[in-house]
Automatic annotation (TrEMBL):
Positions contributing to heme binding: C440
GO MF entries: heme binding; iron ion binding; monooxygenase activity; oxidoreductase activity, acting on paired donors, with incorporation or reduction of molecular oxygen
InterPro entries: Cyt_P450, Cyt_P450_CS, Cyt_P450_E_grp-I, Cyt_P450_sf
Keyword rRNA processing: no
Gene3D superfamilies linked: Cytochrome P450
Cofactors that this protein relies on: heme
CDD domains (alphabetical): CYP76-like
Any one Pfam family match given in the protein's UniProt record, by short name: p450
Similarity remark: Belongs to the cytochrome P450 family.
The protein, known as: Cytochrome P450
GO CC annotation: membrane
Sorted UniProt keywords: Heme, Iron, Membrane, Metal-binding, Monooxygenase, Oxidoreductase, Transmembrane, Transmembrane helix
Length: 497
């Protein structure tokens, strides 16, 4: 045998051996899901762009419904189909139920007391139990619904004033202030914002400050190696804002305790009262740190989400005024034209509910859900998701999947009249509130706040766009941030029905 035959023959044998060994080994250690090749250091960060939900939806067209990217140092797995979302959020929920905690939330150790950011552990279970039983159960919500009803009446009074003057309203601003007050009254029977003016700015501004810092893209979240440096100063500013907010919450707690000391008993039906009852009687293992972190979570999770839903709903309706007419017919028949809507009425308003589902399908406020994290290597769809990976579920693209939805890009509430799907985390084609053990606990409250506000706006006024803007010209540009908001504010003019 000559030298060349021996040389090439050996290489051939070696290649065959390597192939066999790789096949044997890969039976035990499967690969990451497919994805774009990462660049040195930044990985695939440059592919995210200003609207990551859209960039990721486009990448999924090439790499499939389960793909992996490297965002800086962080291995990120993106799910873009309802079937795999069900696998992650339901079948294998336990393995995917931890959270990827943004660095800013280390301020004042918030993440150590927060229901939104703790991993699934006994402390988290206690907080979720309190939320489910003591705050968001039907009985509790019924008990303090009068506090919210009053706020919706004030919103209508404000719109009435604008209607008399023919003034346009910034729908997002008014909705935000009303949502803030709906929530602050549910939590501690106090207004945080004045829908009629910009007074009472203090707490509102502090909450804005906190949310702005948490919502900023932070290099440290992609390069934990830089943690000590806090390059953008986000953690430093978060410490200041969180500090102010916690001081304000301390003030509210002390004020309530003082009231109790003076009167000898607690008499309010709000959440603070319930929390203090639990801590005073040691009914659960929570203290004032949990109360403050819980308030921060509830404001953070409950105001922007409900506001963006309301603003998008009104935007879609003003684009198709015939839908407003249909909703008004339903409201007139069931509630009576111009009459106030109460939370108990919502279940009798199917078309209004269809409008809200359709809004959440097309404009989910949290388009990638709150990032999950795996604490151990996990096998998913024949791939391995390595320990420490971040997992994103792109509910924005799932809601627009043309293999399931007919005309997915058209806003058509009627589709839900014949489609038995709801948003409670059981139908994975429509999961704006997430699903599984980390399903949004505020869903029962959001399902009251949003329809009552939207229904009240539609049952009290006719709405038109500012002069010079035709419905078909209305811009639908999105802005990705803490929530998927409308990029430019929607301004609309109310007039008497
Ligand atoms: C978590 C959506 C309103 C409180 C979440 C999650 C989503 C979500 C997607 C993460 C779920 C997951 O990881 O699977 C929404 C939407 C809302 C809304 C679309 C309104 C349209 C509210 C309200 C509150 C609230 C009104 C309370 C006042 C929370 C909390 C969490 C959460 C505390 C964290 C739960 C945990 O991690 O265990 N929400 N939410 N949300 N939401 Fe909501």
């Amino acid at each position: 045998m000559d030298y060349y035959t021996l040389f090439f023959g050996s290489i051939l044998v070696l290649a065959i051996l390597c192939n066999i060994i790789e096949k044997i080994c890969s039976k035990g250690s499967k690969k990451l899901p497919p994805g774009p090749s990462p660049w040195p250091i930044i990985g695939n960060l440059h592919l995210l762009g200003a609207k990551p939900h859209i960039s990721l939806a486009n990448l999924a067209k090439n790499y499939g419904p389960i793909m992996s990217l490297k965002l800086g140092q962080i291995t990120t797995v993106v799910i873009s189909s309802s079937t795999i979302a069900k696998q992650v959020l339901k079948t294998q929920d336990q393995a995917f139920s931890s959270r990827f905690v943004p660095n800013a939330l280390q301020a004042h150790n918030h993440y150590k007391f927060s229901v939104g950011w703790l991993p699934v552990c006994p402390q988290w279970r206690t907080l979720r139990r309190i939320l489910n039983i003591n705050i968001f159960s039907p009985n509790r919500l019924d008990a303090n619904q009068h506090l919210r009803s009053q706020k919706v009446k004030e919103l209508i009074a404000y719109c009435d004033k604008c209607s008399q003057q023919g003034e346009a309203l910034d729908i997002g601003q008014v909705a935000f202030k009303t949502n803030l007050n709906l929530l602050s009254n549910t939590l501690f029977s106090k207004d945080l914002a004045d829908p009629f003016s910009d007074s009472k700015v203090e707490l509102k501004e502090v909450i804005w400050g906190v949310m702005a810092e948490v919502g900023k893209p932070n290099l440290v979240d992609f390069f934990p190696i830089l943690e000590k440096i806090d390059l953008q100063g986000i953690r430093r500013r978060a410490i200041i804002h969180f500090g102010k907010l916690f001081k304000l919450f301390d003030g509210l707690i002390n004020e309530r305790l003082e009231e109790k000391r003076r009167s000898g008993f607690m008499e309010k039906s709000d959440v603070l009262e319930m929390f203090l009852n639990i801590t005073e009687k040691n009914l659960e293992e929570i203290d004032h740190n949990h109360i403050k972190s819980m308030f921060l979570d509830l404001f953070g999770a409950g105001t922007d989400t409900t506001t963006s839903t309301l603003e998008w709903a009104m935007t879609e309706l003003l684009k198709q005024p015939e839908i407003i007419k249909k909703a008004q017919v339903e409201l007139a028949e069931i509630i009576g034209k111009g009459k106030p809507i109460e939370e108990v009425d919502v279940s009798r308003l199917p078309y209004l509910q269809c409008i809200i589902k359709e809004t959440l399908r097309m404009h989910p406020p949290i388009p990638l859900l709150v990032p999950r994290k795996v604490e151990q290597d996990v096998e998913l769809c024949d791939y391995i998701i390595p320990k420490g990976s971040q997992v994103l579920v792109n509910v924005w693209t799932i809601g627009r999947d043309f293999t399931f939805w007919k005309d997915p890009l058209v806003f058509k509430p009627e589709r839900f009249l014949s489609l038995d799907l709801d948003t409670r985390g059981q139908d994975f084609e429509l999961i704006p509130f997430g699903a599984g053990r980390r399903l949004c606990p505020g869903l029962p409250l959001a399902s009251r706040m949003i329809p009552v506000m939207l229904g009240s706006l539609l049952n009290s006024f006719n709405w038109k766009l500012e002069a010079g803007i035709e419905p078909e010209e209305l811009d639908m540009e999105e802005k990705f941030g803490i929530t998927l908001a409308k990029a430019r504010p929607l301004r609309a003019i109310p007039s008497p029905l």
